[in-house]
Amino acid sequence: MGEFVRVTGTTEVKPGHGIVAEVNGKTLAIFNVDGAFHAIDNTCVHRGGPLGEGDLEGSVVTCPWHGWQYDVTTGACVANPSAKVERYEVQIDGTDVKVLV
User: Fold this and answer.
1) CATH number at residue 21
2) Could you give the CA distance from residue 54 to residue 5 in angstroms, rounded to a whole number?
3) Taking burial as the number of CB atoms within 10 A of a residue's CB, which of 9, 12, 56, 89 is the most buried?
4) Of the candidates 3, 51, 11, 10, which has an alpha carbon nearest to the alpha carbon of residue 27?
5) pLDDT above 70: percentage of residues in the chain
6) pLDDT tens-digit series, residues 60-89
7) Which residues pair with 21 in a beta bridge?
8) How much is the pTM?
9) Chain-centroid distance, C-alpha 63
10) What is the rounded CA–CA span in Å between residue 53 and residue 67?
11) Which domain covers residue 11, as residue numbers?
12) How far is CA 88 from the centre of its chain?
């Protein structure tokens, strides 16, 4: 069983944006969707693009390399839901954003 590890502060990820965070050897993309935080694997399944650097509209992030889109709440690709990136459970502890890894 994993543990919740701090990855960022709540004020460090503005609503409608994402960041890239390293935790326990994993590279994650952390997103703020209207105050709700979500964490997915940072690597696009298409060609490995950095999802945390993509544009977020609602709960959908667009990979900056080739435009693949993912729902950050599920990790599923919008065009092909069977193509997924791993999603991680998020917990808010005061002003800390923690992810279960």
Assistant:
1) 2.102.10.10
2) 24
3) 56
4) 51
5) 99
6) 999 999 999 999 999 999 999 899 999 999
7) 28
8) 0.95
9) 12
10) 12
11) 4-100
12) 8
